[in-house]
Amino acid sequence: MRRSYRFLLRPTSKQAAALVACLEDHRALYNAALEHRRTAYAKAGVSVRYGDQSAELKHIRADDPGGQGRWSFSSQQATLRRLDRAFRAFFDRVKAGRTPGFPRFKGPGRFDSVEWPKDGDGCRWDSQPEHPTATYVRLQGVGHVRVHQHRPIRGRVKTISAKREGSCWYVVLSCDDVPAEPLPATGATAGIDMGVASLVTTSDGAHLANPRHLATTSGRLAEAQRVLDRKKRGSKRRRKAVARVAALHGKVRRQRLDHAHKAALVLVRGYDVIVHEDLRIRNMTRSASGTIDQPGRNVAAKSGLNRSILDAGWGVFLTVLAYKAESAGRELIAVNPAGTSRTCSRCGHGAKENRVSQAVFRCQGCGHAAHADVNAATNVLRAGLALRQAAEAA
Question: Transposase putative helix-turn-helix domain location, by residue (predicted)?
């Protein structure tokens, strides 16, 4: 299996300046390649491909030895592939009839990472193995940068990326052939219902809390945003205010990810089979504002619900749960969530009147009463086990 590891970099002041220059030159290369494609098609009707632009890299580097020529050839190829993927995704959206979203030029705040596709080609993980206490990564044009390696890595390092978040730099390792770490069997199965009051409710009645990290930080975020709005564009004080807002959002993101890891670990340790709803989160959090001709209804309430769903981090949690289940040898099943919250888990009667409130379920057919999320989780589990049985019989 493949796994990614992320570690904090501790560059010197000269190395930090080199990392900034590396990121800026790769951004300039991306934008120049995008402009090349746009101009060639607009003036001559010619579609420029990745192979054409990669072949020109040799001449670009020779003409600019103190700029583009400083960096790894393979990392620049990775930047051109990044643009090529953006164009392929654009054409896929056009064919599917969705809103296309043509690839855009990257501003200074929209390009935050550089990738080296192969360990040993312009980069080297653990470049000073003889060092007794520290780990280093060597990046061409930057040097040996110290890494805060807080845990061991497993598998074979395939790609290395340097990523900037605010004022911090991170190294991201993508490793292949990572061995699985199966956990002992428990013999237990569970269905889980995703929610806002509780992040997860299991079919046996357990509730995993939703900390609401964004709501907790909303006061400080609002104040930081007000300070930002008063600053003059282009000023040094505005840049500091932007960094403050970004730091608060970064903290919320890290808190949400940390809680997702802990909640997923509880489930993976406790159950052999976990059934969850196959949620379409993007559709669920779509704006209700509508258009000028047909304005939406209950826009404020829908906006608050969307904010609560996104603050809960369902997508992050399900992603973390999937790879932890794979590593632990657990079985994860996704089922269609339609009707699970309004169907009685005892008699099967389905009606919207069964859901009395957010927390109370009372069947209008048989009178069965239960916590609404526990009832939904039980239905999710039953649907997942039916899918599993059908797959085994096929």
Answer: 1-43
Q: Tokens 């997702």 correspond to what residue?
A: 260
| Domain range annotation of the chain | 3-176, 189-211+249-393
CA quadruple 271, 211, 173, 159: dihedral sign: positive
- Residue 321 sits at φ, ψ, to 5 deg, of -60, -40
Measured distance CA(245)–CA(243) in Å, rounded: 6
pLDDT, one tens digit per residue, over 134-186 is 999 999 999 999 999 999 999 999 999 999 998 899 999 999 999 988 999 99
Q: How far is CA 44 from the centre of its chain?
A: 39
Return the structure tokens found at 195: 């929610």
- Write out pLDDT tens, residues 308-340: 889 999 999 999 999 999 999 999 999 999 999
Among all chains, which residue has been given the structure tokens 């929209």? Answer: 110
Q: Is the dihedral of CA 348, 353, 358, 363 positive or negative?
A: negative
Burial bucket for residue 320 (CB in 10 Å: 0-12, 13-18, 19+) = buried
The CATH number corresponding to 189-211+249-393 among 3.40.50, 3.30.420, 3.30.70, 1.20.120 equals: 3.30.420
Whole-number Cα distances in Å, 82 to 29, 88, 104, 279: 11, 10, 12, 28
Q: Global pTM?
A: 0.86
Q: Report the relative pairing of strands 143-148 and 156-165 from DSSP bridges.
A: unpaired
